[in-house]
Amino acid sequence: MKKQKTTNWPKPGQPKICPLCGREIPTSQREEHHLVPKLKGGKKTVAMHRICHRTIHALFSESELATRYNSVEALLEHSSVQNFVKWIITKPVNFSDSAKQSNRTRKKS
Ligand SMILES: [Zn+2]
Ligand SMILES: [Zn+2]
Known about the structure:
Blueprint: E1 30-34, E2 45-49, H1 50-59, H2 62-67, H3 72-77, H4 79-88
Antiparallel strand pairs: 1-2
Bound molecules: zinc ion (2 copies).
One zinc ion (ZN) binds at residues 33-34, 53, 57.
């Protein structure tokens, strides 16, 4: 007897929530971040927005990630990450940095 497999569909599942900014992640923007970089033997990944992911890697080196910022909590303690989160939550969830910011300089008043 042949069993009919109905379970091998890619399940949409529950929407993933970005641990960094706390918003839903559209599939098109989803990237896996190794909390400990792969090169350093890390296996655990968390899904996050592409832009959130890139920001982390722009801010921290692989060794900083491996030693110090190897948890979401640690990342969120960093003030640059906090500032990024404050900014990104004002953007649409599918916002990506392809729209480069203009070089308008913001004046502090
Ligand atoms: Zn990563
Ligand atoms: Zn995010």
